[in-house]
Amino acid sequence: MSTGLARRVLAAGLVSLVAVAGCGVRPSGVVPAGDPPSGAVAPTMTITLYLVKNGRLSAVTRPGGRPLFPADTLALLAAGPSAREKAHGFTTDVPPEAGPFSVTAEPAGHLVVTLSTPAGDLSTLAVEQIVCTAAATVPESLAQITVVGAGQSVSPRNCPG
After folding, report:
1. Distance from C-alpha of 43 to C-alpha of 57, rounded to nearest angstrom
2. CA-CA-CA-CA torsion sign (58, 156, 137, 70)
3. Alpha carbon of 161 to those of 27, 56, 126, 133: distances in Å?
């Protein structure tokens, strides 16, 4: 690079630096902003699944970053227990092919869970897992939950736990 070109590039760089450094922000004194934040910390979201241990339903909570739709929570149920949950003896009777799920709320506190497999093929324990896990996804308690799939329906029921 020639000396003249190098000087012009350096001069252009210095002019740019001076222009950016003086971009209109002026010094100021301390600006009062009020008191620091206080109060309770927002609660950590948890996901409740009903898994099986020793042939009985057990509520298991998992940490969750954001609220899930009921169908997403049921998909976690069908995916089975985590490695940690398995190590503690938890299993699931809900087959993975039961998903994907859809969940619809109906009047008078009724929830309908639709499976991708025949509802009549599920064990009683699997139906209870689905019913209780679905009930745990809604803030208000529902009167009844109906499980349907492939033209079959399991009578409306409440979570026995």
Report:
1. 26
2. positive
3. 64, 10, 14, 11
Place of tokens 């109060």: 39
Nearest to 68 by CA among 133, 143, 3, 140: 133
Query: What is residue 13's three-state secondary structure?
Result: helix
Coil/strand/helix, residue 57: strand
* Ramachandran angles phi, psi of 120, nearest 5°: -70, -15
Residue 114 β-bridge partners: 102, 148
Q: Has residue 66 got a pLDDT over 90?
A: no
Task: Find how far residue 15's CA is from the centre of its chain.
Answer: 52
pLDDT tens track for 78-116: 999 999 999 999 999 999 999 999 999 887 778 899 999
What is the distance between the alpha carbons of residues 18 and 12, in angstroms, rounded to a whole number?
Answer: 10
Dihedral angle, C-alpha 52, 64, 154, 108, nearest 10 °: 140
Instruction: Count CB atoms within 10 A of the CB of residue 99.
Output: 19
Please state whether the predicted TM-score (pTM) of the whole model is above 0.85: no
